């Protein structure tokens, strides 16, 4: 029944308690480490009502079965653990730096081998994936904002027999559903847009098959990277307004991208919603909106970019993204950021404030 509804309706109504007399409107976090014997759950590391409600909602939106994890990285680590020892992974040149660092650690430990490819180069990814166990994709990529041709790459990965994973954090399940484009597993940092209020760290996977779900559930219970009940509950509470938040944030992002493009200090704007962006046609084909993250550069002026980040009054100079508050940062301030990300690249996470206030503060910081 839920499948026929618009995703913006599903996100409000999925994962609710049954409508019986005096049932609460929403579920609650259940604070318990153990359960009375004889039931299906048994212990707090194996299940919680708040996880289940969150998972039902995200699973309904992505069109698969969901498992929540302690963080996006815990979810990513569980998926990487599916690769057999000695296996090979193909991953993007640019992607969330924590995932790339995790893969590098696995290579250093001798657990797997890794090939990094540009996700915009469909032919190169398709060639690299031959004989690989896992193809890790992200689109749009953090923070380069590149757009991968997900249907083509998922098809290439499947032909090669690789498990195809898409980190869908930037797009959210409302703008892009990778399982419907042929991916096997979707990964989310629910910390970002899904929870949406900069007060929760949470992750999730969504799988197409029961086999992948069971393999990942086994890892969650044995490796113990479980969410707290309160975190899962807060994330679901935030999730309910995702459609509204995204609508405002992405129209703000489009407005700011156009303003930045005209600014004399700005040498490049990276936002797939701009018609001149190299990822525009692909994003228009596979996403139902262009999202609320963008990046821009200042002609190589890294010190100037750092200064801009430190000169805003309304925008918060902070890492992370997807909150109702607009934030910005120069990504290369992090030592683990990929060295081919420009030193002067500023990533904007656009919130739901008034666009004129956001532009006035950014313009003021660019003048300083
Ligand atoms: C933040 C982020 C992650 C990691 O998620 P955490 O919840 O911080 O562990 C993974 N992928 C992307 C694209 C992210 O932005």
From TrEMBL:
Domain of life: Bacteria
GO molecular function (one): cystathionine gamma-synthase activity
N6-(pyridoxal phosphate)lysine: residues carrying this PTM: 192
TM region positions: none
A single GO BP: transsulfuration
EC main group: lyase
Reaction catalyzed: L-methionine + H2O = methanethiol + 2-oxobutanoate + NH4(+); L-homocysteine + H2O = 2-oxobutanoate + hydrogen sulfide + NH4(+) + H(+)
Keywords, comma-separated and alphabetical: Amino-acid biosynthesis, Methionine biosynthesis, Pyridoxal phosphate, Transferase
Entry GO CC: cytoplasm
EC number: 4.4.1.2
Cofactor(s) demanded: pyridoxal 5'-phosphate
PANTHER family: CYSTATHIONINE GAMMA-LYASE (PTHR11808:SF15), TRANS-SULFURATION ENZYME FAMILY MEMBER (PTHR11808)
Record family assignment: Belongs to the trans-sulfuration enzymes family.
Protein name: homocysteine desulfhydrase
Naturally occurring in which organism (per UniProt): Nocardia huaxiensis
